[in-house]
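Each field is listed here:
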Amino acid sequence: MTDFGKVAVLFGGLSAERAVSLNSGARVLAALQRQDVDAQAFDPAERKLDELAAFDRVFIALHGRYGEDGTIQGALELMRIPYTGSGVMASALGMDKWRTKLLWRSVGLPIPEYAMLNAYSDFAAIEQQLGLPLFVKPDCEGSSIGITKVKQRGGLQAAYLEAARHDPLVLAERAILGGEYTVGIIGSGEEMQALPIIKIEPATEFYDYDAKYLRDDTAYRCPCDLPAGRELELRAQALEAFRVIGCRGWGRVDFLMDEQGNAYYLEVNTAPGMTDHSLVPMAARVAGISYDELVVRVLALATLG
């Protein structure tokens, strides 16, 4: 195995997704140590970043703000320490749902119809424009934090206020109800590959925080229910969506399907979860890649720039 030197596994952090990150990071750390990598835990909420100067590379298992949004990536660039996942620009864009949508739409990738909200929005008109149900979400949060499904007229303003507690930028998005899917991606440049697609079937109203991390009744279909040719087409399109943002190393692209089988791209995750409920390890396993092998492959792709 490659000698990776001294590796810091960054997890915990300061975001609303701290609990998930602690879970991801503990599993990543254990996988590296099982393979005799000199890996150590590093929680940036409890240690000063300049202590990272003692490490040769970093595995980022932080989720959300300050870990997935380009900030920690910028610090590591300045310190010249190679790190896993996407660079500063792609991380910042990937965390920003609105600007991701703008980029994807500019290259012709299909996205759900949406509207940006503020305190002065005409909520009734937006409900009419987008139709019901619709989803309201903070622009720069993950793990479904702050998301509301609006099913009744007059509910949009309250949903906006809930999302605005987490981010000043809030978007409302037309509900696409034919199924939720995700594509894990690993590699860089010409070696980048899309893993088998997973169909997500939550037992809850939608794929919320509990369905993602706490419940055991969420169903994951991998192989999914799509014809082989259609799956290959969507995996190629997900790679395009990933590359347009400038992503590298590894990540995940989520999309929705309508009842007619049309795909709509939702968001990109540049530091996906690595818990026992997480999607990239699940798809990797179907592709013949064990959890431990996946962790080492991601670490081997650590880079700068």
User: Anything to note?
Assistant: The longest strand covers residues 249-257. The CA atoms of residues 18 and 299 lie 21 Å apart. The chain has three domains: 6-85, 93-110+176-300, 114-174. The two ends are 25 Å apart (CA to CA).
